[in-house]
Amino acid sequence: MTINTIVNGYSTENQKTKKSKVIFVMGATATGKSKLSVDLAVHFNGEIINSDKIQVYKGLDIVTNKVTNEETRGIPHHLLGIVEDPDQDFSADDFRRHGKDAIESVLSNGKVPIVAGGSNSYVEHLVDDPNFSRRFECCFIWVDVSLPVLHKRAKERVDQMVAAGLLDEVREMFVAGADYGRGIRRAIGLPELEAYFTVEKDSNVDEATKAKILANCIEETKKNTLKLIDSQLGKIRRLREEVGWKLQRVDATAVHEKCGRDAQLAWEQRVLKKSFEIVRAFLN
């Protein structure tokens, strides 16, 4: 006869199969994933695991849109800027291994693991791993923004990145003839600006031509950012509609249609309120 006792509110039989809980914040670039993950971590005593395959590399903080120290609000971020070699490949298998270890580390600290980033194929590789699925229960929050609004926001963000020093950052990394198919050089903004940096110091090219080339490079950066957004959304919809993941959609469109205090109010009312309800129900 099996003796089934009660310990800490769970039967010993159930404790053997009880899964640890992990929150995933997903969405296309520029939707507000990083901001939401920090808000969730602050509210629910969590730590964040980066799931952006470019942000794992050290450097190029503007190009890769890493959160600033101020934006982290003191919340530990794992797998952020951990790869020092810009040419080293960080594969989906690498993310699966490091991601699982980071989740275990967060849990051992008594905190809630919150995985956030835009590399959906890497997240899928982690979640679909049999060992992971046996041990962890997942809550998926999808931060979504209507496409016209999101495209406008993404193009504005490229301009903001340029104003913040993107050119100086890329210039330091520029190597003529570099391989843009591996490592951190895959980041949108590096291959697009190659044409400009190739002629930037060429005295045979006049300043007007250089300015035109730069404008074209920036426009190409915007176009490729929009292509990335469309690709990310396609993968998310496949995970939701074909694979069957229970992604709970949170509409942040109103936030990006406003500015200042109005945007913050929309964030609190349209995004935080629903996200807090989702996570609270999941953790309880």
UniProtKB/TrEMBL annotation:
EC number: 2.5.1.112
Enzyme class: transferase
GO molecular function, one term: ATP/ADP dimethylallyltransferase activity
One GO process term, biological-process aspect: cytokinin biosynthetic process
Family per similarity comment: Belongs to the IPP transferase family.
Function, as annotated: Involved in cytokinin biosynthesis. Catalyzes the transfer of an isopentenyl group from dimethylallyl diphosphate (DMAPP) to ATP and ADP.
Name of the protein this chain belongs to: adenylate dimethylallyltransferase (ADP/ATP-dependent)
Source lineage: Eukaryota, Viridiplantae, Streptophyta, Embryophyta, Tracheophyta
